[in-house]
Amino acid sequence: MHHFFVSDIHQDQAVFSDEQAHQIGRVLRLRPGERVMVLDNAGWQYEAELAEVGRRVTAVLHARQPAANEPAIHLTLFQAVLKRDNFEWVLQKGTEIGVTRFVPLITERTVAHPPHKLERWQRILTEAAEQSRRGRIPQLAEPVRLADAWAEAQAAELALLPWEGAAQKTLAAALAGKRPSTIAMLIGPEGGWTDDEVENGRARGLIPVTLGSRILRAETAAIVSAALTMQLIGEWG
What is the pTM (predicted TM-score) of this model? Predict the structure, then answer.
């Protein structure tokens, strides 16, 4: 069953956006009477029956139930802005894994200046959430400088800073015996964290951790960190 996040819901009817109408009628070639899953991005999902399928697409909503497939943990991924398509890949795969919020970072070694792509990034998050059957679309913050991100990271129950120089503490050791409800994960740019950035993070209570002896690309480190965190705290069964 295809899943769609729909903002226009009134009582027992959902009205799909023009883009969704094109996808439903022209790409998926669905017809009236077929069933889809409608999500309101507020914690509920509805089994729905398509009523109109044309330039306008509507559906009649039936059984309402709590949205499924959302992790119990709130994982915020603070990701330094990356070059080319790498940042978008992190958004897509991070959504599939279960990241709740993305915060694009500007760090000392960030070489890719954040383009005006928030609308495109939001569309990537929505499509990835529908494809992976998430119950909510991850939140997306405006790009911020690292100096302005420390406070939000500190507010999490556990704040982690993967860094190739943190040879003594693994991610598994940092999570051992813990079940925090909120985790902040900070991933650096292509050139990595500077020593000053790591020390500033450490001084604010962030825990530098190692992901192993092999050096990972920034986008790989983001996905490995998120996936290992979900696995270590039991979100993947």
Answer: 0.92
